[in-house]
Amino acid sequence: MKSIVTFASTVLAASALAACSPGIATLDGSISFDAGGMTVHAAGHPDANVGRDGVLRIGGKAIAVTAAQRTLLGRYYQQARVVVEAGKDVGEHGVAMAERGIGDAIGSIFHHDASTADKRMQAESSRIESAADALCTDVKVLDATQNELATDIPAFAPYAAANQMHCNVTRSTTVKNGRTKTKTTTTLTANID
Predict the structure, then answer these.
(1) Predicted local distance difference test score (pLDDT) of residue 8
(2) How far apart are CA 77 and CA 38, in angstroms?
(3) How far is CA 41 from CA 26, 92, 128, 175, 177, in A?
(4) How many domains does the chain have?
């Protein structure tokens, strides 16, 4: 049952990402999405808008880009959407785990059977680990594309420098009283100026 407590903070953080703002999806406050596309924020700079089609505007002014750069901007837009969805997925798995964990904890008190609850928690934990791994992979891909954009389009460089994201997953396993416990920690950090 310690799994429930271990994942409590992860559940709260991930569910907060999953429910950022109604109608507007955000990625750690540095990138936001609406019907018109994606807005990238950087302190001290006007907003950069990236359309689904790869059109770039900074401070409302169109930035001339080549066809290859437009394709890269379109890919960046899609990758950022994938990261938002992956964050929501982690949050949804976390909420499901918390709901099940609380129910199982109460049930195990009355039925004196913690092993069934532990097995279900391990299964939920594995789903969260998979979702967290996918999120970290997606963040790394997005970060690489963002850096490539900064190199290819100098006007975009301040936005890439201000919005560096990093994701790490660490796992540790302990054995206590013959029971194996695995703890997974996913850390998503962003350097947002």
Answers:
(1) 38
(2) 7
(3) 11, 27, 30, 46, 51
(4) 1
